[in-house]
Amino acid sequence: MAQENPDNLLQLGKLGKTFQLAGGLRFYPLGDAEAEAIFSLPFIYLGGFGKTEIREVKEQGKDIILYLTAALTVEKARALVNCDVYAPADLLPETDDFYLDDLIGLAVFLEGQRIGEIESVLEAGMQDILTISGDSGDFMVPLQAPYVSLEEDGLYLNDLPEGLLDLNDA
User: Hey, what domains does the chain have and what are their CATH numbers?
Assistant: First the structure.
């Protein structure tokens, strides 16, 4: 059942535990834009399983529940738990926010000087952690920190707490 996925996919989130007996799965979005986008998509791609149509999306309290054609029963849904969820970038709705996957490869500046680029985005509960790769090594920065500013041309770090990054010795 494993299928190839197209190259222009952005990760939206991950599937969690099953929900009730109709094959529903909890959807854990990477961010707010991804949570909104899932409601407008006709299909998604699941890591390792390929394309599947979305039968229904509904909110259940704080949870988003997906019903997929690949999971018509709870038994089939269980096989999809922990799958990464992707969607074609050209199908995603415009947003005032940003899609976390769009941050990969973005230049990172410290006090106006380019120091590297974003390698990955890690989910860590209430805070997204950016892994940044640069000439002085790799380091991590919380995306929602007050010293982080996301601009069109890159991510800017200003007025960092002392000792957070030791790049001066590199």
Answer: 9-97 (2.40.30.60), 104-157 (2.30.30.240)
